[in-house]
Predict the structure.
Amino acid sequence: MKKLAAVFALTLASTSVMASGLNLDVNPAEGGAWVTVTEQGQAVKGAKVTSESGLDAKVTDESGRVFIHAQNQNSRTVNYIANTDQGERAEKAAFVRGDHS
């Protein structure tokens, strides 16, 4: 019975994570990308956004936006990750041109 309760609890936890309404919109720009975090169409202020390298972590402003600098001079696909204080998480990959300045 304890095993069944544990399985049920894990199922509920994974369902709530999958039901997250957190959304990332990535707009590549020279030298990085503008990332906008929204939830149910509303900007999310204070979400922590990083790229897969984790070197350039920023917090979104009141409009849910943040600029994440490219960590590599080569153009490539970058995975962006957003986390909120409420434990919500979203990821999105985008092709970003390298910083050749």
Remarks:
- The chain has a mean pLDDT of 81.
- The helical segments are 2-18.
- The chain has one domain: 21-96.
